[in-house]
Amino acid sequence: MEAVLFDFSGTLFDDTGVLDAAALVAAAARHGVALDETEADDVIRRTLRHVDSPEGFAAREGCDLSQEVHRTIWTGLIAEAGPFGPELTEALYSCLTDPGAWLPYPDTVPVLGALRDAGVPVGVLSNIGWDIRPAFERVGVLDALRAVVLSCEQGIAKPDPALFALACGRLGAVPSRVLYVGDDPAKDGAAVRAGLPVYLLPSERDARTPRGLAAVLRLAL
Questions:
Q1: What is the pTM of this model?
Q2: φ, ψ of residue 179 in degrees (nearest 5)
Q3: What is the CATH topology of the domain spanning 3-15+102-220?
Q4: Which pairs with CB-CB distance under 8 Å and at least 24 residues apart come from 195-198?
Q5: What is the bridge-based pairing of β-strands 3-6 and 198-200?
Q6: 103-128: per-residue pLDDT in tens?
Q7: Cβ atoms within 10 Å of 175's Cβ, excluding its own
Q8: End-to-end CA distance of the chain, in Å?
Q9: Residue 220 CB partners (closer than 8 Å, separation 6+)
Q10: What DSSP letter does each residue of the chain carry, written as one string?
Q11: How many CB atoms lie within 10 A of CB 43?
């Protein structure tokens, strides 16, 4: 392999614990809403139940094509979940998109650092509606990334092969020599349609448990 391209959510950074009761209490206070942690837990449960329902999944289609569309769709879904007022809705959305709330898996930073030190071009390709670069900067590996390609900045999203081709171009490598690492069989697995070999991670994940990224070093180096 000449380069490695990673997905973000569920691959390098954990997506299961982003919404935290203590963080929501603080964010709500900044928006003029008083909550205790029990109430915040209830707000989070109601929100996740709604946005992860079949209707919520359908409503989220296309939400990652721009930051404006992401904000509109997600704040709409959050508001419906309560229903919640605009202040609490904005507080919850700010928690969802807070780079500090996204935790890397234990093997993320070591693997990205090892690839950087070996001189392997590394990129991230994500269907996302906000800028994830600060999350990498916070843990000290933004400099390991030669390319960061976000659907909200390009107006196209996985599984569109054009987005994979664009990312490979940013890495300066032909698709057949770029290993793609992700966790979604449909959206990430679609990299094969653009000519990339793919390494898919299992769906079970936990922020405290290594994600299985060490295998990438064996495949790429």
A1: 0.95
A2: -80, 125
A3: Rossmann fold (3.40.50)
A4: 196/5, 196/164, 196/168, 197/1
A5: unpaired
A6: 999 999 999 999 999 999 999 999 99
A7: 22
A8: 7
A9: 1, 4, 115, 120, 179
A10: --EEEE-SBTTTB--SS-S-HHHHHHHHHHTT----HHHHHHHHHHHHHHHTSHHHHHHTTTGGG-HHHHHHHHHHHHHHHTT--HHHHHHHHHHHT-GGGPPBPTTHHHHHHHHHHTT--EEEEE--SS--HHHHHHTT-GGG-SEEEEHHHHT--TT-HHHHHHHHHHHTS-GGGEEEEES-TTTTGGGGGGT--EEEPPS---TTS--STHHHHHHH-
A11: 25
| Other CB atoms within 10 Å distance of the CB of residue 218 | 7
Please choose, from the candidates 10, 5, 8, the residue with its C-alpha nearest in 3D space to the C-alpha of residue 211: 10
User: Do the Cβ atoms of 78 and 93 come closer than 8 Å?
Assistant: yes
For residues 203 and 184, what is the distance between their CA atoms, to the nearest angstrom? 8
Strands, sheet with 198-200, edge to edge from the N-terminal-most edge strand = 147-150, 122-126, 3-6, 178-182, 198-200
Domain residue spans in the chain? Answer: 3-15+102-220, 21-100
- What are the pLDDT digits (tens) for 65-101? 999 999 999 999 999 999 999 999 999 999 999 999 9
What is d(CA 43, CA 27) in angstroms, rounded to the nearest whole number? 13
Q: Which residues contact 169 (CB under 8 A, 6 or more apart)?
A: none
| Token duo for residue 97 | 């998109």
